[in-house]
Design brief:
Order of helices and strands: EEHEHEEEEHHEEHEEHEEH
Strand order of the largest sheet: 3-4-7-6-8-12
Distance between the termini: 36 Å
Number of strands: 13
CATH class: Alpha Beta
Largest sheet: 6 strands, mixed
Radius of gyration: 18 Å
CATH topology: CNF1/YfiH-like putative cysteine hydrolases
Shape: globular
Number of helices: 7
Length: 261
């Protein structure tokens, strides 16, 4: 077992200084086997004490005073506003919101999603007053998780920027007709995001589909999108490559005035 701090990916985007964000990789944690080693998912069959140790290491590395707001992710379009959810969570600390997106405008609410091929998407406004996050698999993208988070941000979409985190690339993401039809039936131009392969199936561009959704919602500033969780096996977990497997975390929050200096 490893005990050093986790390797963190810092988004390359021009976010305001008070906006903080990271993605984790799979290295330098306590989990073993197919969960090796920095697995933060407690729903995938890993040993609970290993997951707890990994989450504790993450909190220490990021200098948090408490756990992030972990979600019960269900591949749908519900978005939780952590500003109003906070008092309820204080009363029922075991209650996880069932959602695939979260937003906040307060400095002590850390938004987080877990992924292992699905796409994590970060949001912030140019004023640095609000942040948001989405867990975007193909079902969530087709159903509208990204515009749902954008609407929940409560600001003009033109003032928002987005960063696309580690996800599976088009070259590695083979899907059937039902996935293509879920997008093309409502947006025929989305066909550009699907390339037919030699097996008569389709290589889906998850990043491309996300960019289309963001642009349709009014965003112009879109960054990231150059990872592949499937092929970069030394850096990331991939459900398509190994099942069961661990989960990475992508987090975004607003720094308090105390930590700005």
């Amino acid at each position: 077992m490893q005990t050093t701090e986790p390797i963190l990916i810092i988004p390359d985007w021009p976010a305001p200084v008070q906006v903080r964000a990271v993605s984790t990789g799979r290295n330098y944690g306590w989990s073993e086997g197919s969960f090796s080693s920095f697995n933060v998912g407690n729903h995938v069959g890993d040993k609970p004490n290993a997951v707890a140790s990994n989450r504790a290491s993450l909190i220490k590395a990021l200098d948090f005073t408490d756990q992030p707001f972990w979600l019960n992710q269900v591949h749908r379009t519900s978005v939780v506003n952590l500003d109003s959810y906070y008092s309820q969570r204080q009363k029922e600390t075991r209650l996880l919101p069932t959602a695939d997106g979260a937003v906040s405008s307060k400095s002590d609410r850390v938004c987080v999603v877990m992924t292992a091929d699905c796409l994590p998407v970060l949001f912030c406004d140019t004023a640095g007053s609000r942040v948001g996050i989405a867990h975007a698999g193909w079902r969530g993208l087709a159903s509208g998780i990204l515009p749902a988070v954008i609407a929940s941000m409560g600001v003009d979409p033109k003032t928002l920027m987005a960063w696309l985190g580690p996800a599976i690339s088009q070259a590695a993401y083979e899907v059937g007709n039902e996935v293509r039809e879920a997008f093309v039936n409502s947006d025929p131009d989305a066909a550009v995001c699907f390339a037919e392969n030699k097996s008569g199936r389709w290589q889906a561009d998850l990043y491309g589909l996300a960019k289309r959704s963001l642009q349709d919602a009014g965003l112009k500033a879109i960054y990231g999108g150059d990872f592949c969780t499937y092929t970069e096996s030394d850096r990331f977990f991939s459900y398509r490559r190994t099942n069961p497997c661990g989960r990475m975390a992508t987090l975004i929050w607003l720094a308090s005035s105390k930590s700005d200096g």
